[in-house]
Amino acid sequence: MVRVISISDEVYCELSRMKNGKSFTELLKTLISECQNKGDAKSIANFLNTQEPLSVQSERNITEALEKGRSSSIPRSLS
Predict the structure, then answer these.
(1) Enclosing domain of residue 12
(2) Per the structure, how many domains does the chain have?
């Protein structure tokens, strides 16, 4: 099954740079498999900190995209 996800242009460019001839699926599988203790916030942060740091502009772009997504989301009913 194929899923469609949305990512910022900047993240797309970074992933494209990292994939070195692999498909995006292969790259993401590799990144996920390298992340130990999946779901553990500290492990994820440690993994991300081993990567090249984001620029200030990248951080702003990601924060803006997250805030935009959150503001346009529709809360689910808990009933």
Answers:
(1) 8-20+54-68
(2) 1
CA distance linking residue 79 with residue 76, whole number of Å? 9
13 in any annotated domain: yes
Distance of alpha carbon 14 from alpha carbon 16, whole angstroms? 5
- CA contacts within 13 A on the Cβ side of 72: 6
- Supply the pLDDT for residue 28: 86
The letter for the amino acid at 41 is: A
Span 11-47, pLDDT tens digits: 888 888 888 888 989 988 888 887 666 666 676 667 6
Q: Is 76 left (phi over 0), alpha (psi -120 to 50) or beta?
A: beta
Whole-model pTM: value is: 0.43
Give the type of residue at 32: I
| Whether 27 contacts 33, CB under 8 Å | no
pLDDT at 53 over 80: no
